[in-house]
Amino acid sequence: MLERPFSSSHADGVLTLGGSIDEYAVAALRSAIKEHSDEHRRPLTVELSDVDFLPSVAVGVLATGLRQAEENGAELALVATPGTIAHRVLVITGMPFFEAVPEHGTPGSV
User: Fold this and answer.
1) Series of mean pLDDT values for 10-residue runs along the chain (110 residues)
2) What per-residue confidence (pLDDT) applies to 107?
3) Cα–Cα distance between 65 and 25 in angstroms, integer?
4) Minimal CA–CA distance to 59: which of 72, 46, 71?
5) Which pLDDT does position 65 carry in this prediction?
6) Rounded distance between C-alpha atoms, residue 86 and residue 59, angstroms
7) Sign of CA dihedral 108, 92, 29, 72
8) Cβ burial 67-99 (10 Å sphere, 16+ → b, else e)
9) If we measure between CA atoms, which residue out of 77, 70, 71, 72 comes closest to residue 98?
10) Could you tell me the pTM of the whole model?
11) Tell me, what's the pLDDT at 110?
12) What is the pLDDT of residue 109?
């Protein structure tokens, strides 16, 4: 299987990721989460369903983001649809996630 390059886009409180989050893309992932959550102070939904590769180092970035958001009283929601690689990884790791983007983007805005 060919790995696609990492991509990210942001709209309406949802950061949509795609491709391979390899060791080179981890810095971009960390930066995108911090930027779009205003340093973990604003609610943000991270849509992972189009991710092809989600190694432990990327899971670590997501776990750190969840913890920092919680410490700052914000919400970081992870989304992975069933059958995707991200869904399998999040189930295995026991990280909290949604199977679909909440209706209004971020959980805090529902």
Assistant:
1) 87 96 95 95 96 96 97 96 97 96 58
2) 55
3) 16
4) 46
5) 96
6) 10
7) positive
8) ebbeeeebbbbbbbeeebbbbebbeeeeeebee
9) 77
10) 0.90
11) 35
12) 42
Q: Which one-letter amino acid corresponds to residue 84? A: T
Q: How far apart are CA 77 and CA 103, in angstroms?
A: 13
Q: Do you know the residue count of the chain?
A: 110
Q: How many CB atoms lie within 10 A of CB 109?
A: 13
- CA–CA separation, 15 and 3 (whole Å): 20
Residue 85 backbone zone (phi > 0: left; psi -120 to 50: alpha; other: beta)? alpha
**pLDDT the model gives residue 102:** 76
Judge whether 46 and 64 are in contact, CB under 8 Å: no
- Amino acid at site 82: P
Q: What DSSP character marks residue 59?
A: H
| Sole residue written with tokens 């190694």 | 55
Q: Scan for tokens 């971020």, then name that residue.
A: 106
* C-alpha count within 13 angstroms, C-beta hemisphere, residue 23: 0
